[in-house]
Amino acid sequence: PVLLLRDDTLGTIRAYDRRIDNDLFVRLKPYSNSKKPLAVYSDDSTNSLWNRNITAIDGGPEVKGKKLTRLPVEQDLYWGVMKYWYPNLQLYQPRAE
Known about the structure:
By secondary structure, the protein is mostly beta strands. It has 1 helix and 9 strands; from the N terminus they run E-E-E-E-E-E-E-E-E-H.
């Protein structure tokens, strides 16, 4: 499981491994609370709060202080090249509303 984020300022994509200690997975979603201004993501399964650096700043001892592992990302790859190396690759395009 991978978490993909687009950097607001640079527009680049960042990827993180969602596993913590190989057996615990987090599913981060946007979070906003004026009492905890550093928390920008939350995870319901671990009842934890995460900052912009993808580090748990609040939660139980199994999570608090943990940082998700960043994964390498290659941007600007051509579709034809990717499809050649990954024949089962599918392009996802959201429906226009």
